[in-house]
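Problem: given the chain below (215 residues), write out its structure.
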Amino acid sequence: MTRFLVIRHGQTKWNLVEKFRGRADIELDEVGTKQAEVTARRVAQWRISAIYSSPLQRAFATASILARHLSLEVESLPELIDVDYGEWQGLSPEEVAVKDSDLYAEWLTNPHAVRFPKGESLSEVRERVVSAVEKLTAQHSGEDVVLVSHKVVCQVFILTMLGMDNSRFWQVAQDVNAINLFEVRDNVPTAVFLNDTCHLEALRTNKFEFQSWRK
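Solution.
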């Protein structure tokens, strides 16, 4: 049995404002670094064999903090990079609603039907997610593996593992530094838990706030 711990990166300054992040290479902020430290202590309960990350620094820095606590190295995995929002990258929802009103409305209601202008579609994200799962399941049979990625990629990963199509995209929540655990036995994935952020509770009680928005 192979276990995948799929983790969204920690908080950045762009998580505090409503912008489409995508391939913008944003650093973790102070809170995001603390979140990753707390997450590392939670992940230490598993016998992690390998850590893979999106090459973008907000994910790679999160993974590096986990790796330091686990005495492992991080391997960059291109398939885990964030969705390419194309011309929407860096824009707010209000700006996109003016620029591409019909397409933005479609994104909020039928996300599977949207291809971002000069960017990707969710089906393209899914193709690389499937490729990563197949490769890593074969490579790490019987091991526990961490994958650090981004909101959209984690959502599509979850849908893929649950056998659900991309039209259900908005039915999957992914908060910053959430952990999702899947077990794959005989090529059949089972969700053990999803969008778990209980390890961040200590930070929340110190009145740090983490936004979850459709971006």
